[in-house]
Every structure is written in structure tokens, then in C-alpha cells.
Design brief:
With about 350 residues, the protein is of the alpha/beta class. It contains 13 helices and nine strands. The structure holds pyridoxal-5'-phosphate and iron/sulfur cluster.
Length: about 350
């Protein structure tokens, strides 16, 4: 749905507005197979696997996938495989991070000191098959106006909270009216000094980074940090690069978090190229997450030793500021858990 007052007229040579692109995402295996010229044999498994967690891919992202290549690192992130429905190994859970129990006030996830996640909405522009929130009860987090006030009140009542992290879903799928209203309300809480936005939209629908959005962010009293989510250098095309540079030039800190994914970015060239491509757009790597053990995603898992050896190799190839921190999230801990790099490669037996 496109809100009436958000429709912007474009000349034919411009790409369509972000709202149009968001409304026009590909949501079926048939459509994907057609656009990507895939063999029909792949369809049935994808249709079945997408019953629990629907397919959703913006066309701007699809354009970066090589046609007919089932090993494409972007394709693997969005195409449902039969393994999603296979019996998961021990330790793979529906809510691996215990978010349901930390979600006492609707919309608020408060686990770490000084900062809270504000779940602004449940929807994302893209459905990443490895997503740890694939079973999260998003419906319960589509907040009513009353619940908004309660979530803001939760922050207001706790002077130790100096950073609010807009999360989701993807907070930038909210329309400007809602988003700007929220940023304004957070800015009115005196003890909050930083606003962080965790979003994949700059990567999957870069047109979302409009001048209006950038203006609104820079005029806030809050220090703004945008944490994007890109897993592979192929995701960063010219349009994505331009939108990331625009944020940087506006004085917004931009960081990246990635997930370490088997056969997608678990090799040295992929990680080196990602860090270099990010820095070309002034973005610094922040976290490289080990996969959260969520049911349906075990086929993306990279074993701990392999991850540690990869980090050792990465440190041998890049300046320290282009090496992300390898982390995992352990339910109940007061922060992400960083994983040390070994001194020599660990034998993988
Ligand atoms: C990851 C996360 C944060 C942010 O952690 P940082 O280490 O500050 O990036 C905050 N709250 C929750 C619940 C999180 O999962
Ligand atoms: S953008 Fe983030 S929250 Fe949304 S599906 Fe992908 S990994 Fe999950």
C-alpha cells in the first residue's frame, strides 16, 4: 500500500520511488524462477519451504543476482531450500535469543545496559532465509498508539538508557510520517543521546535513503548511527554505494553487520572484498555474526573453528579497522559474545 501523500512523481528516467519498490517486491517462487531463469526442477521445494516463512525480494536486489546461477551468493540468501523443513540438529530453536521473554513491554527489547531495541514494526523488505526472527511473533509488535506511548514511557522512566536502537523487522519500511514522529518523540527524552537504526533497506532498496530522510536525521539533536546489513560485496552496486556515501556526507556514522553464512561469505576473498567494498562507501565493518541457531536455518551454519580460522586469515589481509568483530549471541548474556582469534590455525578434525 502506498500512502497517498507519499507518492512522488518521477520522470521516466528515474527509478521508481521506494514506496513503489516496496509494494512491488517479488513474493513467489514462480516469479523468482521466471526473473532469474531457473530450472523448473527447483520450484517445488522452494514453494514448500516458503510456507512457514514467505518469499520476499525487492527487484533492486534481484538485479544483482546472476541469472540461472543457483550458487550465486545473493541468490542463496533469498531462495528457500528443502533443508528449511528438515529436522534441525540439537540446539536449533524457534526463539534462540529468548526475545519473547525479554519482550515485556510491547515493542521494547531491553537486554543490554544503556540501550534498548525498539521494534518499530514487523515487516522487512527482504526475507533472508537465515533470519533469526523468522518465527518471531511480529504481529504482536505492530503497536497501537497507546502502546507507542507506553514504549516511549518505558525509555523516559529509565535515565540509564542513552541509546535507542530502532529495529524490526526493518524500521525504514515505516513511512516518513511515522518514522519522523518517532524520532522526534525520542529526541524529546533528555537522557537519550544516540539513535541507532538497524536496517537492510539501504542495501536492498537504496532509493529509501531520500533527501527528506537524510535531512530529518541530521536535524535531530541525537547522534545518528545507521547499521546496515550486507553479507557480500555483490550486494553493493552503484546505487547502494551512492546512498551509503550520501549518509556519510551528511555526517551520519554508517556501520555494517553481516552474518557468516556457509557457501555465501565463509571464504577469505568474500570477506576481504566485502570490507573493501564497504570502505569504498565510507562504511566500517562492525559485527560478523555467527548464525543464530534458529529452526530452518541450520544449513547456513559455519562451524566455530572454521569461523576462527577465517578471522585469523582475514586479520592477515586487512588493516585492523576493516576486520569485523566475530560475535555470537548467547541468551542471557549482557552483551554480544566476542570470539577470540586463535594465534595459529586450529586443526579442524
Ligand atoms: C545486539 C543487540 C543490541 C546492540 O548491541 P551492541 O553490541 O551495542 O551493538 C541491543 N539490544 C539487543 C537486544 C541486541 O540484541
Ligand atoms: S532484513 Fe534482518 S530482520 Fe529482516 S529478514 Fe533479513 S535478517 Fe531478518
Amino acid at each position: 500500500m502506498i500512502p497517498q501523500n507519499d507518492i512522488i512523481m518521477h520522470s521516466s528516467k528515474q527509478t521508481s520511488s521506494w514506496q513503489q519498490q516496496l509494494a512491488d517486491v517479488v513474493t513467489s517462487a514462480e516469479q523468482l524462477a521466471q526473473v532469474l531463469e531457473l530450472p523448473a526442477a527447483y520450484l517445488q521445494a522452494a514453494q514448500q519451504a516458503s510456507q512457514d516463512f514467505a518469499i520476499r525480494v525487492p527487484r533492486a536486489f534481484l538485479e544483482r543476482i546472476k541469472k540461472g546461477d543457483v550458487n550465486d551468493p545473493l541468490f542463496r540468501q533469498i531462495w528457500p531450500l528443502a533443508q528449511e523443513n528438515a529436522q534441525p540438529p540439537a540446539g536449533f530453536l524457534l526463539d534462540p535469543l529468548g526475545e519473547a521473554s525479554s519482550n515485556k513491554t510491547p515493542g521494547i527489547i531491553h537486554k543490554y545496559h544503556g540501550r534498548v531495541l525498539l521494534v518499530t514494526n514487523g515487516s522487512c523488505a527482504v526475507h533472508c532465509r537465515y533470519c533469526f526472527r523468522r518465527h518471531f511473533p511480529y504481529g504482536d509488535n505492530a503497536l497501537s498508539s497507546q502502546q507507542w506511548l507506553e514504549a516511549l514511557d518505558y525509555i523516559q522512566q529509565r535515565p540509564e538508557i542513552n541509546e535507542v536502537i530502532l529495529s524490526g523487522g526493518d524500521p525504514l519500511t515505516n513511512n516518513d510520517k511515522r518514522l519522523f514522529g518517532l524520532i522526534k518523540a525520542i529526541g524529546e527524552i533528555p537522557h537519550v543521546t544516540r539513535l541507532r537504526i538497524h536496517t537492510r533497506l539501504p542495501i536492498v532498496i537504496p532509493a529509501r535513503i531520500t533527501d527528506e530522510l537524510v535531512d530529518n536525521l541530521t536535524k535531530s539533536r541525537l547522534k545518528i548511527v545507521v547499521v546496515v546489513h550486507s553479507n557480500h560485496a555483490n550486494e553493493i552496486d552503484g546505487e547502494v554505494a551512492a546512498c551509503l556515501k550520501k549518509l556519510y556526507l551528511a555526517g551520519i556514522h554508517v556501520l555494517n553487520q553481516a552474518v557468516l553464512l556457509k557457501d555465501i561469505n565463509d571464504d577469505l576473498p568474500s570477506q576481504v572484498n566485502l570490507s573493501e567494498a564497504l570502505f569504498d562507501c565510507h562504511v566500517l565493518p562492525y559485527y560478523l555474526h555467527l548464525l543464530d541457531p534458529v529452526v530452518g536455518a541450520h544449513h547456513f551454519e559455519v562451524k566455530l573453528v572454521e569461523a576462527q580460522n577465517l578471522m585469523l586469515a582475514l586479520q592477515g589481509h586487512l588493516p585492523g579497522f576493516l576486520v569485523p568483530k566475530l560475535v555470537r549471541e548467547v541468551d542471557g548474556r549482557p552483551s554480544k559474545t566476542t570470539i577470540d582469534t586463535p594465534i595459529t590455525p586450529i586443526s579442524n578434525l
